Amino acid sequence: MSGEALFGLVGAAVIGIGLFGLVTNADALRKLLAFNVLSSGVFLFFGVVARRGAAAGLGGDPVPQALVITAIVVAFAATAMAIALLTRLFDRTGSATLGDSSTDEGGDA
Amino acid sequence: MPHTAIPLAATTAGGDLLVAAVMLPVVGILLSLLFGGRTVERLAMLILPLNLVIALLVFIDLWQSGEPLAYVVGGWTPPLGVALRADGLSAAMMVTTAAVACAIGVYARADFLTPAGVVEARSPFVFWPLLLGVCSAMNLVCIGGDLFTLYVAMELLTFAAVPMVSLDGRAETLKAALRYLLFAIAGSILYLLGITLLYGTYGTLDIARLSRLAQPDFATICTLALMTTGLLAKTALFPLHLWLPSAHAGAPAAASAALSALVVKGSFFLVIRLWFDVMPALPGSGGATILGVLGATAIIFGGIMALRQQRLKLLVAYSTVAQIGYLFLIFPLAWNAQSGRLESGAALAGGLLQVMAHATAKAGMFMAAGTIYAAFGHDRIAQLAGAGRALPISVLAFVCGGGTLVGLPFGGAFLAKSLLLESPVASEQWWWDWIMFAGSTLTSAYVIVVMTRTLTRARMSQAACASVPRYQQMTALVLALSSLLLGLAVFGVLGIIQIGRPDAAYVIAVAPRFFDVFSFAAILKAFNPVVLGTVLAIGHMWRERARAMAADAVACSGKRSPARLALLDQVDRALRQWPVGSTSLLFLTIAFGAAMFAAH
Amino acid sequence: MMSFTFDTAAALLIVAMGGWIVIVPDVTRAVIGFIVYGLMLTIVWVRLSAVDVALTEAAIGGGLTGMLLINAAGRLRSARPVLRTDAPVRFIAALLCAAVSVSLAAVIFMLPSPAPSLAPLAVENLQQTGLGNPVAAVLFAYRALDTLLEKVVLLLALLSVWSLATVGFWPGLPGLRPPALAGSTLDFLARHLPPYGIIFGVYMCWNGASEPGGAFQGGTVIAAMWLLVMIAGMRRVPSIDEAWLRRSLVAGPAIFVVIGFAGMMVAGSFLAYPPDHAKLLIVVIEVALTLSIAAVLGLLAAGPPVPESRP
């Protein structure tokens, strides 16, 4: 198995792990952490695609690499926003979970 | 109207307009940040109408030339570079979003102006650039020609929408915003994963090239499943609607209008692009049916939940959940079994019209609800007696908007429904008609409930009712009326959706004959749901009164019985739990993949 | 053979780390694990011949994100404990995630070979841009629109963070809490590291035109130095309405847009560069962008304005 196929499998595994964390972790910060793990898996996958496209004297296809850089920055911005919301929510209510939706609007309350 | 293939690598005359459409609001955001203070609202007041002018120019250019517009950015032709392309669908969406954004700008002046004596205030400084961001992002979604540029556009849209939810700083809205953000970025990352696979298979992300290259192999099917599910999460299609009610209801009224009318349509537009333009032969009847079933469930479920709401803004939010379902009925109705692909014809025109009708009607309804909240200090439906007397224009706007959504003539939804049912599939699959009928009935029911409550005379002398600027109410009414007259207004220009559609070989006559559509029989038929809805509304209000009296009796007797939720409310609460909603996300991905795989 | 062993070891470590982060009960340990995970990923990126991405991942993915998460984990330590998700849901989710992973793993082996690539096209056109780094060419020339709009995305994220200011306290100071005592390690680092960090950042930006590096990586390092200095209390945190701050934030994208529109008139298309001056223009954009990226990333990490409270 070539190196990039191996890392591709790693990417697939990490994506699954990240998705599992995103779905099952009850704490919002853990969800965010799982989202970051998930994103890193997707980027790794993209990196494998880039490596497979090595040609013309380059070690990898520069277009996917540039797209990954853009996506990393966007993911960071999302994390920063989420953490600001989370810490502000904690300051106000003392809890840091999304809660089940039964306690807030959307029901009969 | 002549059909031409989308030019792969050429900037057409008039393409500069496309750049202006995206960059003008961006320049507005930059200048707002630079100068701050009162300049922020002045810039917005300047740029929102200019944005509308640009959208209209694009529309007129397209209509007159019959050819799509294209712009190759930086002179680097795809696949290396990025192109912007405007076809008929884009132009129509751009005009709608620009017009609704202008109306929102006018409405928001009352709530988001920097107060006198203050150099810079938080809400205005944040709100106006966000609104400009929504404009720029929506324009880019309509005209982006590269899947990654569309990803950036969607992130722009999400990052402009999320802070709008938590503008007032209350704990519930913070929670709603956080939930929205997490679910939206989960959707985005699934979309990005799809892009990854697509690039790995075809080496390009340009829409025009991909539409020629796409083959139904395993990787491409996985791609479509992932991207579609990610976009559905952002569009809040049932059962992925967990974030929408609290987010849209908790935001300030102008923001709710922007969220329901504009933001949610962005990701939906991308689903259309993917399914109709990039991979029309891929989904198979299974994939299209899944979307149709989800849409149908959304219509019924959202309608019933809307009827059960106690608060007006939540009612309108659940109405959005239901109306989003209507949009997804396009897919099974556009499926052509003979050619094995989605055809751009009457169903697509109907869907576009439904989008336009909903955008204007829903914005009007949220604005009306906002004025009621501002006047009364609350929006509990049961206690809105006297609203009709205090805010007649708002109530009229609400009823007109609701009426459009029911499908009354000459509204956009009326024409949309007749177009949707014109497709050949509709005659075989008769159930879609019945589902739309049920949806209209539920919509009439809750509109009539609200109408009854607001038109009831107030029993006591009215408590101090805050005054609401008249122009806010008028804006709501203008939007609602434009929605109600949309069917008439766009009748002549419906053919625009044919511009730039690559399937030149299969031309459906999109322009129906006027008197066939607006025939007496059809108009009468449109009122059927209203009749049934009235019955439903009366039954619902009677039951509410009975329940209230029983609760009073219990309270008087001193016993306390635990509040038992109806089954449907329990289902809704269960669905809106994060683990359930996100597991549905995964489940849908697999389901789509399996259905599409089975079709090939 | 050696590299294959290394790759396998790295692969196993990464999967193990990823699983641990998601499962370990204590949030702080999970976050520290995440930072280590980010550094391991950096090495993997180098193995995949994507040095620009490795730099970005180390700086932003592991570094700044890790800082934000640790800060949050510390503040949320006294949050009410949460119940675990029910076992049936976990089981179903695990099954579905496994299905997704397996499908993706299968896709890897089904991707066409030889892989379609834009590398030849990118290299062909490199000379026209005057750059030596093909990734920089993609970011600032071929797909400049995406990069420009991404900057706007960052600014909107910053607006969102600022919107969480305590109502009534606008404009204010972002709530970095300087805890440094004189003589502590933080103080030592804050005194000695920034000069080198800034030079390093400038070098990365400058060199990014021909070698791996660029505005994002350099800007992040400078942002980190700025944050270090603010946290150690050596520089006061600026109020968010200060003119120089707003100008730095806007400078990068503004210059990018101006050059873009100039390209419309001079070179025939928005964001096109006249061939003789392409490299100069791109370097100007990158320098301006480095400044703006440093400002925006620093402010994103600094958080929303809070009421001033002097200890």
What's this entry about, in short?
The complex is a heterotrimer of chains A (109), B (600) and C (311). Chain A is mainly alpha-helical and 109 residues long.
Reconstruct the topology from this structure.
The complex is a heterotrimer of chains A (109), B (600) and C (311).
Chain A: H1 3-24, H2 28-52, H3 62-93
Helix pairs in contact in A: 1-2, 2-3
Chain B: H1 16-35, H2 39-65, E1 69-72, E2 83-86, H3 88-108, H4 122-143, H5 147-165, H6 171-202, H7 207-213, H8 218-235, H9 244-250, H10 253-278, H11 284-308, H12 312-327, H13 330-334, E3 335-336, E4 341-342, H14 346-376, H15 387-390, H16 392-406, H17 412-420, H18 424-428, H19 431-455, H20 470-484, H21 486-489, H22 514-517, H23 520-526, H24 528-557, H25 567-575, H26 578-599
Antiparallel strand pairs in B: 1-2, 3-4
Helix pairs in contact in B: 1-2, 1-4, 2-3, 2-4, 3-4, 3-10, 3-14, 3-20, 4-5, 4-10, 5-6, 5-10, 6-8, 6-9, 8-10, 8-26, 9-10, 9-12, 10-14, 11-12, 11-19, 11-26, 12-14, 12-19, 14-16, 14-17, 14-20, 16-19, 16-20, 19-24
Chain C: H1 2-23, H2 27-47, H3 51-75, H4 87-110, H5 119-124, H6 126-129, H7 134-142, H8 144-163, E1 173-174, H9 185-207, H10 215-231, H11 243-266, H12 278-302, E2 305-306
Which tags fit this structure?
heterotrimer; A: 109 residues; mainly alpha; Helix Hairpins; 3 helices; elongated; disordered C terminus; B: 600 residues; 3 domains; two-stranded antiparallel sheet; globular; disordered N terminus
The overall average pLDDT of chain B, rounded, is 87
Beta-strand content of chain B: under 5%
Number of helices of chain C: 12
Going across the biggest sheet of chain C, name each strand in turn: 1-2
The rounded Rg of chain B comes to 23 Å
Shape of chain C: globular
Shape of chain B: globular
SSE-based structural type of chain C: mainly alpha
Beta-strand fraction estimate of chain C: under 5%
Q: Characterize the largest beta sheet of chain B: strand count, sense, and whether it forms a barrel.
A: 2 strands, antiparallel
Assign the structural class of chain B, choosing from mainly alpha, mainly beta, alpha/beta, alpha+beta, or little secondary structure: mainly alpha
Mean pLDDT of chain C: 88
Please tally the helical runs of chain B, counting DSSP H or I stretches of 4 or more residues: 26
Low-confidence stretches of chain B: 1-6, 504-508
Could you give the count of β-strands of chain C? 2
Fraction of residues of chain C in helices? over 70%
